[in-house]
Amino acid sequence: MQIHVTDQTGTRHSLEALEGFRVMEIIRDWGLDVKAECGGACACATCHVYVAPAWSGKLYDPLDEEIDMLDSAFAVEDNSRLSCQILMSEALNGIELTLAPGTQKDDAAAA
Amino acid sequence: MSDVIDTDILIIGAGPVGLFAVFELGLLDMRTHVVDILDRPGGQCAELYPEKPIYDIPGLPEVTGQELTDNLLKQIAPFKPQFHFSQMVSSLEKKADGRFDVETDAGTRFDAKVVIVAAGGGSFQPKRPPVPGIDAFEGKSVFYSVRQIEAFRDEDVVIVGGGDSALDWTVALESVAKSVTLIHRRAEFRAADATVNKMWELERVGRVQFKLGQVTSLNGSDGALESFVLKSKEGEETIAATRLLPFFGLTMKLGPVAEWGLNLNENLIPVDTEKFETSVPGIFSIGDINTYPGKLKLILSGFHEAALMAHAAKKIVSPGERVIFQYTTSSTSLQKKLKAA
Asked: From CA B341, how far away is CA B327, in angstroms rounded?
């Protein structure tokens, strides 16, 4: 299984994925620059991604908790999701994602 | 402010590991002061996931971040730690006599024999919107908190966000500012109902503006904001404004730790696994912020690190004193300390 992730600089990465893992964990474990500071607890919004429209219908709808947490993300669009809330499955093999602005490790905080 | 606090131990960070360090140090009779940038103890457990269950604390099959924090506070109460909240250690220097001169951004000063860095992922700071050039406006027109209401008098104030801070300040600044515009990505808010209702009331009578969308760029010069661009489903519009308050919550940043002369490895502090001491003798580091071969960022690892660190710190705090390793189950002297609360 693979996921395709375009990082904040526009580079597309194809990452080997394992069923049952959170997509955030896959992105993080392959070393892409994603802050994901709460570790997958849906508590920080720093793993914010855009899901390519063709794939949105294959995802579970976000829970209220995820929708609320997106209030703390930047540049939120209709296809915004928190990647820690997407569980990898066969149905998502090949999904296209883009890391949103404000998810990099170093520049999410004010001075 | 000018009084220097004399202490055996200064702990930087009041997260679970910093709190448990108070216990281990206390068993060995070391007195502790604890500094944290948040306004309450608990660190990430309190700020990021107070309601989330944690399943890997030994002996506690399921505990929330807040419950763990409350339990730790109860456990360390006999040792009377002194907390200094809402401040960040801004400077840390080793003096000629081997002690440490430590100062916070609030002006609190410590003279400590030993410093423990238990700062987790760093200090919690406001999230900065990824708007180009926003840093040039920070501190002049763009603020992440309201320190003085007067700084907003007769200004055109824009508040962005949908939580308590955004709603509270929309309502509070309305009577002072020339105008208040609240911007959020949706017409729903995660704030106290009463405040949300008050905001809608003010909006209905035209004293507060509410707009859907997000801020994508700022215009002005020399830090003086003149207008901003609001992007929404209807397109883009430029709106005049002189003050911007973005409220998107907090995120962790390493902060001044990088300036304390410690060796760092990818923003983590390398330590040995015998004493958990840093490259500077007398400064120890425990919990998520340290690194060593095999390190796992688990609360339980931090607890273990605190116990070993305490025994090493004791040798610095009370040089020459013989330390007997004792169990709380059998030592009457330890039990006496624990019941002294």
From this structure: 19
State both tokens at B166.
């955004």
B48 touches chain A (CB under 8 A): yes
CB contact under 8 A, A109 and B249: no
Q: Which residues of B touch A76 (CB under 8 A)?
A: 185, 214
Interface test with B, best of A29, A34, A44 (most B CBs within 10 A): A44
What's the token pair of residue B313?
């710190």
Q: Which residues contact residue B16 at a Cβ distance below 8 angstroms, ignoring those fewer than 6 apart?
A: B42, B43, B45, B68, B69, B72, B287, B299, B302, B303
pTM of the shown model: 0.86
**Which of A75, A108, A111 is the closest to B127 by Cβ?**
A108
Per CB-CB distance under 8 Å, the chain B contacts of A107 are 128, 130
- pLDDT single digits (tens) B70-99: 999 999 999 999 999 999 999 999 999 999
Q: How far apart are CA A3 and CA A97, in angstroms?
A: 8
pLDDT tens digits, A13-64: 999 999 999 999 999 999 999 999 998 999 999 999 999 999 999 999 999 9
